[in-house]
Specification:
single chain, 213 residues, alpha/beta, five-stranded parallel beta sheet, 6 helices, 36% helix, globular, disordered C terminus
């Protein structure tokens, strides 16, 4: 990856964060966004990932340690993350080097993605998130699991198993699929300003079931 490609990824990340916040992409807003903990952590990750690929790993570690003091979050420079990534400003999260994340994904903050689970071979295992996935506050993704496009992990859930169905809504400890949402609706949805999308008609089906009982 070239430095120009890294800069373009940063632009996409900042642009999407401003878009979700409802702000224009002018110079003042870009500078303000860059000082937000979530955005700064993502920018630092992009820079350290570039340095890691160029084998300047000592400099990558120094930058990562400095940003961690400010943001309280860590994205390992060995992770693979697509464009348009948004990280919330809540402190305490971590994304390990064994993680691959697709484009336009959102991690709302305080979440952990790690392979630290019994029986996982770190040389082979990997956590894979598809495009447009949303990980709620305080959620944990543990072990070599794969989440399909537009999967939503609700707050404080613990994901131990893969979710192969696009639009899955995962909740609980361990997390189970509690519904699905239309992929096109998830792609248009703003996860920073509204609750998780429910399965279409699920509320009415539960109400009907309650009436029958």
């Amino acid at each position: 990856m070239t430095f120009a490609e890294t800069v373009n990824l940063i632009r996409e990340d900042v642009r999407r964060r401003l878009e979700l916040d409802g702000r224009r992409a002018n110079l003042a807003n870009v500078i303000g966004a860059a000082l937000m903990p979530g955005v700064l952590c993502v920018i630092a990750y992009r820079v350290t990932n570039f340095l890691h690929q160029k084998r300047y790993r000592i400099f990558a570690r120094i930058i990562d340690d400095i940003q961690h003091l400010y943001t309280g979050n860590e994205i390992h420079f060995g992770a693979v993350i697509g464009p348009g990534f948004v990280l919330g400003d809540r402190r305490g999260g971590g994304i390990s080097e064994h993680v691959t994340i697709g484009r336009n994904c959102t991690v709302l903050g305080g979440s952990t993605m790690t392979l630290n689970a019994n029986g996982i071979d770190l040389s082979k295992g990997r956590i894979v998130l598809g495009d447009h996935c949303v990980v709620g506050i305080g959620a944990r993704i543990i072990g070599a699991v794969t989440l399909a496009d537009c999967t939503q992990v609700k707050h404080n859930s613990v994901v131990l198993y893969s979710a192969p169905v696009a639009g899955s809504i995962l909740s609980g400890i361990p997390a189970r699929m509690v519904g699905t949402a239309p992929v096109d609706a998830v792609m248009r949805w703003n996860p920073l300003q509204s609750n998780f999308l429910p399965e279409p008609g699920a509320r009415f089906r539960r109400a009907a079931k309650g009436n029958r009982s």
